[in-house]
Amino acid sequence: MAAQDGLAANRALWDHLAEIHGTDPGDRSYDVQAFLAGGETLRGIERELAGDVAGRDLLHLQCHFGMDTLNWARLGARVTGVDFSSKAIARARTLAEQAGLAAEFVEADTQCLPDALAGQFDLVVATYGVLSWIGDLGAWMGGAATALRPGGRLVLVDLHPLFQTVLTFDPLVADWPYGGGAPQHDAMTGTYAHAEAFSEPRKSTQYPYSVGDIVTAAASAGLIVERLGEHTETETDGRHILPQGPDGLYRFPFSDTYLPILYSLTAALPPAPDGHPRDPGGAVGHDAAGQTPRGDRQQ
Ligand SMILES: C[S@@+](CC[C@H](N)C(=O)[O-])C[C@H]1O[C@@H](n2cnc3c(N)ncnc32)[C@H](O)[C@@H]1O
């Protein structure tokens, strides 16, 4: 079945990465010691879009080894992290103990979330390196919508599909489809966090989705799209291909302007007929900084 093409190999790949990410002093993305010392791991976009999470039930999809999930817990949310990697879930539970933070971690495929999660959350959050791993976008969006309470909101921040088409910036080479969801088979040697994550090239399967594919999937899942942001600046470039400006930010120059690097989508499950209030959340401007593109199509 096309949607499950590569799922087992992808899970094995992420099991390996869950054991090495954040363990090497040279890690380019995860600083576990800084997190344990109280450091912030979330970026400005998701913080602003989620708004005040204190007292909220928050589901973090594709949580990896849980550092961001636990950061939401530090901000006062009751958190549940989901990932299909058993190694990631085991490590996330250990990290929660080390950090002294309460959190639930559930091993599951985000394309078929457990029934027990249905209708339990005020917020569903997924960030940086999410949908390119998903063969069945409709199932993913349906699961996110089903997990929400009436009036609850999805906050999704990920690499922009246009940026994902690009292999190199200089020279400018684009070699990936813009959307459509057809499985793309690749061989990986390194990741956004660890340049030499694999001793030999590892097979991965990823899926390109356009902005239209993503917004349409959200609408088809019964979500009301509130805002779609396209972000042209970022504090770090997880793909390590963009030029860094004198202000320290990374941009994708194009003609006299910049192409988007990230997108952010906020969408709500309609309130219940009795008028259950919608979570007001926050808003982020077009050029919001503070975001970190991790998880790219070649992880
Ligand atoms: C790039 S990482 C996400 C990074 C994450 N935002 C963080 O805070 O570290 C992608 C994650 O998606 C997970 N994943 C990939 N496909 C999945 C699936 N079908 N179901 C659940 N988790 C999946 C991987 O195990 C991995 O932890």
Automatic annotation (TrEMBL):
A GO MF term: methyltransferase activity
Keywords: Transferase
Residue ranges constituting the Methyltransferase domain according to the UniProt record: 59-152
Top-rank taxon: Bacteria
Residue ranges of the region described as Disordered: 270-299
InterPro entries: Methyltransf_25 (IPR041698), SAM-dependent_MTases_sf (IPR029063)
Biological process, per Gene Ontology: antibiotic biosynthetic process
Alphabetized SUPFAM superfamilies for the sequence: S-adenosyl-L-methionine-dependent methyltransferases
Protein name as annotated: Methyltransferase domain-containing protein
